[in-house]
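re: the backbone from monday

yeah here it is again, tokenized this time
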């Protein structure tokens, strides 16, 4: 009975881990595919069926030219061969019982013979299939395995010539489009240089400046505001805080027109400062810091006041170090918001002012310029998404701690 319980627990764990593994795979696969696509060549993106890893064709020098290598199996041995640029006509022959009357090119082929080696009898044979469809086919005589056979012409085609560069006497013929190309995993890091050269480097710098300004501004104002509402008694404090907190419920669309008019009136239109200053005050950040400051024992603050510390020193030396989890949480949220902001930059900066573009605007421009090159579009997306991921990884410890502790006391 005891062993049965152990087996049940292990089985339950395996099921849970399997479900979590599948969910993790489904969540990570789009990101993984985007990253690998950003390292692919343009031709490799459109390959069907699609592949995860980036591949590039293997090339060799043949007749003073660098040409791709194809692999064929000849006489039971695999050979790497190159395209010569020559073509040769072939006839594809089949038997009367195998020929596809409606679609001769889909018939099972018995023999593939060069046109000059196939002997036409001048005869034609009428073949009727089970559905009553009839068609005439030319009759050829060919020698297979020492025996002469009369076969029907399914179709003619010109095939590309391939030769072994190490042994030019070995020649084969195939359709280049369907031939098996020799490929190797090749990471195209040059895609990032190409994309950064399309003004994305300037947009990346602008986005970093705007994000840094908004993040630092929101953290500073939230820390001061949160401390004031949590620790400094003044008349109407709770009422003002509720009104300030209620501003969260005002939709952004309601503020767009007055904010735009204000930026135009003070001459900040098409300038990066208009992306920073209006967003350095946040009711959410003030609320977050206030709630965290309320969890800090008052006795610590009272002891500091008795020792002659000012409010500013108490805030900087006691409250801020103890509130690093909450600060890290706000930094992550603010960073993500400022980094991914699109609507306000589109309105106040516009698509035409490329020198002040942020990443979200440049990605729209990139998707238009490189509409036929999804690998470059994915490269731009990778450049935009990697910094937030790095910030989250570095601040993950504080972020989780902030989420776990921010609701302990209201």
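seq for it, each position gets an aa:
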């Amino acid at each position: 009975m005891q062993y049965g319980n152990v087996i049940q627990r292990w089985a339950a764990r395996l099921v849970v881990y399997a479900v979590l593994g599948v969910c993790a795979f489904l969540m990570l696969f789009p990101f993984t595919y985007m990253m690998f696509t950003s390292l692919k060549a343009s031709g490799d993106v459109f390959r069907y069926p699609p592949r995860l890893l980036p591949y590039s064709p293997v090339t060799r020098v043949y007749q003073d030219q660098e040409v791709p290598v194809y692999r064929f199996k000849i006489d039971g041995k695999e050979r790497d061969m190159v395209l010569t640029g020559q073509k040769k006509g072939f006839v594809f022959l089949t038997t009367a019982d195998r020929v596809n009357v409606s679609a001769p090119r889909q018939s099972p082929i018995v023999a593939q013979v060069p046109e000059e080696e196939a002997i036409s009898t001048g005869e034609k044979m009428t073949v009727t299939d089970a559905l009553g469809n009839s068609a005439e086919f030319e009759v050829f005589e060919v020698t297979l395995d020492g025996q002469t056979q009369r076969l029907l012409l399914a179709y003619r085609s010109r095939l590309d010539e391939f030769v072994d560069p190490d042994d030019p006497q070995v020649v084969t013929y195939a359709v280049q489009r369907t031939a098996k190309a020799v490929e190797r995993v090749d990471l195209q890091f040059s895609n990032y240089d190409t994309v950064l050269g399309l003004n994305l480097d300037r947009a990346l710098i602008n986005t970093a400046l705007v994000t840094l300004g908004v993040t630092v501004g929101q953290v500073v104002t939230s820390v001061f505001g949160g401390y004031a509402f949590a620790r400094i008694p003044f008349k109407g404090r709770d009422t003002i805080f509720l009104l300030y907190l209620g501003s969260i419920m005002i939709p952004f669309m309601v503020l767009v027109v007055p904010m735009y008019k204000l930026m135009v009136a003070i001459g900040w239109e098409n300038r990066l400062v208009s992306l920073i200053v209006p967003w350095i005050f946040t009711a959410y950040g003030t609320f977050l810091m206030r709630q965290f400051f309320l969890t800090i024992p008052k006795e610590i603050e009272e002891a500091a006041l008795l020792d002659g510390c000012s409010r500013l020193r108490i805030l900087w030396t006691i409250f801020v170090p103890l509130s690093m989890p909450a600060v890290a949480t706000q930094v992550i949220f603010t960073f993500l918001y400022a980094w991914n902001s699109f609507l306000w930059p589109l309105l106040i900066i516009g698509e035409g002012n490329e020198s002040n573009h942020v990443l979200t605007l440049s990605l729209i421009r990139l998707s238009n310029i490189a509409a036929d090159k999804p690998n470059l579009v994915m490269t731009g997306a990778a450049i935009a998404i990697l910094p937030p991921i790095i910030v989250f990884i570095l601040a993950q410890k504080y972020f989780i701690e902030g989420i776990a502790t921010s609701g302990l006391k209201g």
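The radius of gyration is 36 Å. Residues 406-410 have pLDDT under 50 and may be disordered.
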